[in-house]
Specification:
With 319 residues, the chain is an all-alpha fold. The protein has one domain. It is 79% helix and 0% strand. The protein contains twelve helices and no strands. Helix 2 packs parallel to helix 9, helix 3 packs across helix 12 and helix 4 packs across helix 5.
Amino acid sequence: MSDWERTQERNYDGGPMARTLNLPALERVLAALDAPRNGAALFALLSTLCVAGLLLAMAESALAREQGLWGGIWAGLSWTITYFGVNVTGILLMDQAQGRPVRDVEEALKTALLRSHKVLMSLALVLAAVAVPVVALLGLLLLVKQPVVGAPLFGVLVPLGVSGAGLLALAVLVIVGPLSGPSVWAGNGARATALMCWRQFRHGLVESAALMLAVMALTAAVTAATSFIVLSGARVMALLSVWWVGIELPPQQLMAGLFGYGLRSLGAAGAPVAASPLGVAALVGGGVVFALGLALPTLVYLRGCCAVYLALSEGAEKE
């Protein structure tokens, strides 16, 4: 852990975050469009997606051969690499969001190995806190069958349960999920991150929801633009390859790699498959495009989460 990270964690007191929306906060969110220019983060995420995809393919192959143990091992390794890879990417994007020099991927990997567990620890603390009202609600629901107090109690529990469950679901969507990672990437510990989630839920749920809605809209727009580029380019490439060059490959196979499919998946779906060098090359090339198309919206989303966390933190400091 660097000196700056120690200072961040030592000074953070888990106090309330921003209660107001302002133009600088929205400008921070819009700056998430700059995320693909972070070459280190793009490399880290693409590497993660490629390695995780290969491990998932190995897991699928092992399960097809009825080797459940190896299938579980490869799948577990895939999810583990995805988790640490996303944390490495997030650390690099947090450097960019804070206007600091982006560290090397190797240094970010070391930091992620030392700090990524704090994200899970903070989530465990949040779940432990949420379990208290949930258990209380379940206990009270056991009393609704009582002859005297059952009906009035149920009439009270219905609005309380509906509103409480809805608010908790919203908090998970706009606070716990998006902000826990950026808090740890910025140098905070598990306890400070859990306190941040709790106090933001109390003081700034509306602000968090509005900013995260902007991040989601931005991510959706990038996803739509990326999908249009991939699909339109794929159609052109398929036409040129089959009609102009005369490559004898099923059009489905040329398009399959763009959606993450392989030879085994196509065969299982009943699509025509050509197990030729050109066919394999088409799937590999399409897989690269698929990884890139998945990485760009993910970068924008993670960068947007960092922006929301920093905007709310800076708003709290000004207050």
